[in-house]
Amino acid sequence: MTFPTIEFAAFFAVVLFLSWLLMPHPRLWRPFILVASYLFYGWIDWRWVLLLIGSTVVNTVFANAVARAETQVGRKRAVTAAVAFNLLLLGTFKYLGFFVSSFDDALGGIGLGSSMPVLQIVLPIGISFFTFQSISYVIDVYRGDTRPVPLMDFAILQGFFPHIVAGPIVRVNEFVPQLRTPRDPRKVLAGPGLFLIAGGLIKKTVVADELARRIVDPVFSDPGAHSGAEVLLAIYGFAAQIYCDFSGYTDMAIGLALLLGFKLPQNFDRPYLATSLRLFWHGWHMTLSRWLRDYLYIPLGGNRRGKRRTYVNLMLTMVLGGLWHGAAWTFLIWGAIHGGALSAERWLGDRFPTVRVPAWVGWLITFHVVCVAWVFFRAPDLGIAFSVLGQVGAGGPSPLVTPVLVALAAGAVAIQAIPRDFWRRAEAWFVARPIAAQGIALGLLTVIADAAIGQQGVAPFIYFQF
Amino acid sequence: MERRTTSGRRSRNGGSDGRAAGDGRSGRGDSRPASDDGRSALSDGQEIGGRPSVHDPAHPGIGDPVDPRLTMPAGRVWLVVLIALLVAAVLNSEAMVRAGEGMKQGTTRDVVLAVAEPLDTVTGAVGLQLPREGFDRAFGQESKTAAGTELEQGSAAILRGRARREAKPVWRQPTPAQPLNVLVTGDSEADLVGLRMNDLDSRGLIDIETVARNGTALTNPGFFNWELNAEQEISARDPEAVVMLIGANDGFNVEADGELHAPGTPEWEPEFARRVAVVMRTLGSDGERPVYWVPPPTARDSDLDDIYRSQNRAVARAAEAVEGARYVDVYSTINDGEYSDQVRIDGREVLGRQSDGIHFNRDGALIPAEMVLDAMAKDYPVLR
Hints:
The structure holds 2 protein chains of 2 kinds.
Chain A: H1 6-22, H2 26-42, H3 47-68, H4 72-109, H5 127-143, H6 151-159, H7 172-180, H8 190-221, H9 228-259, H10 277-283, H11 286-300, H12 307-324, H13 329-351, H14 359-378, H15 382-390, H16 403-414, H17 420-431, H18 435-453
Helix pairs in contact in A: 1-2, 2-6, 3-4, 3-5, 3-6, 4-5, 8-9, 8-16, 8-17, 8-18, 9-14, 9-16, 11-12, 12-13, 13-14, 14-15
Chain B: H1 2-12, H2 74-91, H3 93-102, H4 107-125, H5 130-138, E1 180-186, H6 189-200, E2 206-212, H7 226-237, E3 241-245, E4 254-256, E5 259-261, H8 268-284, E6 291-294, H9 302-321, E7 325-327, H10 330-333, E8 342-345, E9 348-351, H11 366-379
Parallel strand pairs in B: 1-2, 1-3, 3-6, 6-7
Antiparallel strand pairs in B: 4-5, 8-9
Helix pairs in contact in B: 3-4, 6-11, 7-8, 8-9
């Protein structure tokens, strides 16, 4: 089940009602929200629920084993086993097919070509996200940052339907305490919740899908057939598309959770206003980037082992972050561009500590580095990526460049500059309107979103595939 | 609790908590660091890693106090959601019917249609569909459904064919200066095959435009009417040749002579062939341009495979009857009609199918792309 569908609308209306009805009775509410979440997740394939339950149970066992181990060696063994289990789980579903076919290719290369059985494993949606949460849970227990939580609490965290498919990646510390504190039914954060849901819906349907359909997909499927202006708009368009697609989904996730009384961590914070790559990563996919920082970059040594090692660690972290998206050269290069740019920024800062770069120059460079990296992220292979970049200066007619598409791409960036107080005032104003006006306004907005989708249906969210 | 444990962990790692100074947790407004130039000595983790719990009006932080001006009681929230969904259902009733028509057979589909169809009848009668139609126009959406089309109901006479033109039509032969304008369309299978055809065209003799209508089928015109869509596409693009890849979603019952026929029944295949012929004729504008029709290949699922085999027979039959139509038989050509995840390319077995056991992957799509180009080369010898 995905958010902008009839099935989900009906599902959420029922769950919202029953959830608040049962909220004063935790013994009823907990199994209810767990079953509802499993129903949501298993709607496409019920076997995924079994996988989720298995992962939840095994990680709970590991977390308890880590906490109960009497020696440091024992704790270390338990946490290592837990991380290995989670990586194996993720690797099996995500990379096994790639490795088998690569091995087969390698055999073919040395004249031992064979027909190895190719394993076809469907990647369960959201497996990356709940696996990352599992890893952070057992490591946090190992580090003493949290204690093992009851199986039911961890199961609700893992399965909680607003965020299971594409994040945000939530830590036990952030969510489980909310399960233990009564949610106040008189003070639901409806202003931010409804705005996030409505905004996310519009971002996805009006901006992301329109840009994808009308400029990004046509150009990336055949860059040689398009003019430089069209290619340039497709590059900027994809930057806007992926932001609106991904942040649109997590906005809806956070908004839905707010209506149910729960706060999830923020996942995007004006990334395209960043004046440096470092700040870009403070605002892009924040729950993943802090996960990479806390469970990969810092364990690698962070910046504590000298400058060169810091550059290596940055590069390693970003390349592995790239490869998390898929075993492909395009993702590797995407990560390497970010790792290289972060290292370069740091080197320049150390080498020229007194030089001040105007903010607009920093923004211009940062935004375009990000856009070039997105070309590799979006392209199906390196050939297409280089073809897109090589086509930027090409002439020719540009019928795909329309004022509406330019406005959508520019608007996706410009909207991030709207002062936060404006949104707060708008939310407060909306909350003060009569109930009928609120409902009609949101209903009309849903109709607009559906009209934007048209009869081709809503395109899958980009991050579902990761 | 969260703050205490977090700082404890990070101090052990020798650095700050990854938040730059002035991250806004304690105040309103922009949460960016006060020193934003990247030249300060960065403590551990500052290069990457966001600050997901910052105070942000749009994203209330986990530990932030609740602003009462932004809150509503839960019961009111539920009523707002309910009113919004009701308004959307009333104004979107036609879209709901279409969405229901597009769903797989089952309870969900039955429920959606049971609600949406009577609602649509009522709202249509009082003109409540007008706002949605206005929004459709604003977004440039064309209706893809229509009543009374030949696709839904028509004579099987179209399959009996007619006298072929005496002289074989002569198509314009493409040159690099004037490449052939080809429309590759159909369902999701069209995407990769169109891409691979483009890859194979090293001489720049064809100019391919791929328009995939994912999830569509010929057996479900209530959801997406391919006859109507074909008219619109041909009118808008005026291609010189059309490649059509469709059928993966055609597991629906078809209605013929007022009765429903399930796939596998004797009546299903002729009715499917009739629908193929109608769309073939529309795409080819009665023989003005060639249409290369590629029904699905073998499928891993045996029930689906039976339907696809039946479709291939139907398409072969329709192509015999429609002027300018060509049947491209990937079903029995690839792996001799036996399903396999792998295909043979340049003498090597490679993974050629996606995990659903239906679609080609990028490598596998090379095979149908080559077969289409081979078929086109019979009409356009310069493509050889």
